[in-house]
Amino acid sequence: MAQSLTGTLTYTGGVITLSPLTRATGTYATYFLPCEPNQQIFRHHIPGTDGNIVVLGGRMGQVLRIGVMSIGVDVATAIGAITDELDDMASSDVAVVICGSTWLRCHLRSCTASKPARPVGPNLAAAEFDFVFDYDD
């Protein structure tokens, strides 16, 4: 049996709860891809030598990618469950809690539809989105 992703996206003005995947109305996470943390890198060239001295200055942030599926009673409801939240989410810090880890001070970089919204069963329609967040470490 496959494991489901659960979590929350909390921001000023609301929260999106990512529930275990079922074939019922709700919002679900379909994938979670935290990218490798960005490092602050300084390169110093010493005159008269070949190459550089490289100094790592520490973590600067990270990109988080989350697939979100919204299921509603019709296509408009499934799309609206996500798009109605985007204005508030884009204008505030977002706390991403998923897979047992927490990332505070995330900023919504983009939200795009990953597939056309479509019916998935009697009185059920799904809309899938790709969320990309910048995490400020």
Concise structural overview:
With 137 residues, the chain is mainly beta. 10% of the residues lie in helices and 62% in strands.
Keywords:
single chain, 137 residues, mainly beta, Elongation Factor Tu (Ef-tu), domain 3, 8-stranded antiparallel sheet
List the helices and strands and how they pair.
Elements: E1 7-11, E2 14-18, E3 26-34, E4 38-44, E5 53-72, H1 75-83, H2 86-90, E6 94-98, E7 101-121, E8 124-136
Antiparallel strand pairs: 1-2, 1-6, 3-5, 4-5, 5-8, 6-7, 7-8
| Total strands | 8
Q: Helix fraction? A: 10-25%
Distance between the termini: 35 Å
Given as residue ranges, the uncertain stretches (5+ residues, pLDDT < 50) are: none
Query: How many structural domains can be distinguished in the coordinates?
Result: 1
> Number of DSSP helices?
2
Could you spell the SSE succession in H and E letters? EEEEEHHEEE
User: What value does the Rg take, in angstroms?
Assistant: 19 Å
**What class would the helix/strand composition place it in?**
mainly beta
Shape-level CATH architecture: Beta Barrel
Overall morphology = elongated
CATH class: Mainly Beta
Strand count, sense and barrel status of the largest sheet are:
8 strands, antiparallel
Beta-strand content bin? over 45%
Q: Mean of residue pLDDT?
A: 87
CATH overall fold name:
Elongation Factor Tu (Ef-tu), domain 3
